[in-house]
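Usage

Read records sequentially. Each one opens with the input sequence:
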Amino acid sequence: MKTLIKLLLTAIAVIVLGYLLPGVSVTSFLTALVVAVVIALLRLIVKPILIILTLPITIITFGLFLLFINAIIILLAGYFVSGFVVDGIWWALIFSLLLSLFQSVLFALIKEE
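and closes with the structure output:
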């Protein structure tokens, strides 16, 4: 149940960011929900592989390269989901940072005590 609520909150954050950022386009709430699921799956499957493959550059940059890994995950989601368009790596980076910020605020609201 908690996972479903997190997916719905992420979809809301995706649709809001789609309206706020000119380089990101989301066609509908259903598309935003699919994007939330795809991002969750990509973070679960692809992100650990990318982290292992880019470990030396991540260490050299003191972890800042992880921001670009998150942006790559967003671009991959844009590739897989029709109706979700990100215009470039910089928009993906901004989208990723704001999505993480929105998620931490929204997920704090449903945190169990």
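Summary fields computed downstream for this record:
- The chain has one domain: 2-106.
- The radius of gyration is 14 Å.
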